[in-house]
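Issue: ligand-bound run for pimelic acid - logging full I/O for the record.

Environment: standard queue, default settings, no custom constraints.

Inputs:
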Amino acid sequence: EEMFSVRMRAAEGGSHEDGGFHISGGETLVAKRSLEAAVQELLQKALLHSRGDADFIQLVMERIAPHEILRVPPLPVITATAEHMHEGRLYAMRYLQTLCISEQAARKGIELLASQTNLRGAAIMSASSGERLDAGLQGVRATRMGWTEDGYKQWASRHTIASPRITEALALATKVAHAPFVLAELCWSDDPEYVTGYISSLKEGYVRIPHLKEKGDFSGGRVFYVSDDVQLEELTSYLEKTPILIDK
Ligand code: PML
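Outputs:
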């Protein structure tokens, strides 16, 4: 069946694609018969995040050649224990180091997310030095990923935590974990009401950390940690272009 990539971006205070303050973004890869429903869902998300008041909402639909699509299973999900932010960040610091991220890079990644309130794309960071490598510090956005209908149903029936936020994050994290040169991803939401984040890797799966910030904090974003032999063009092309379907 024909597949479509659907992407949404909403902004405030700007009328063209690059202008404005980023409010919301979303992403899916669906069969043609689900295209309308997917567009509606993303539009609702944009309206919800902007409280019906976005200056700019962009929805892009693009046909994807079926033979280009790679299918991978979702990363296994584990939830760590952390009672409050300090415990969560300490856990993150230690856990990142078990994934071959240096202490310095782990600290820099956490500091970056803690200091950013409107990080548009993910930062690409050297896992050894903690240096930011994305060109012009513009960030890179992972796109063209989604669940198969069956894959999603099966996953949701086995995971009581299934929610649009978590399944979207897991699809992204699964795509990113399969990226060349990526060792791990660190993420927490910039939504001030949502304090759970995660560290994901192909090696250990998707590890949720219940408290990576305090309520009311607008900071957040994503860091992709990469190995020293990283080829940025190859990595960026995979993240932005390679279509990935999350299947069982
Ligand atoms: C986001 O909403 O922007 C990212 C959500 C990350 C955490 C999802 C989870 O609870 O596992």
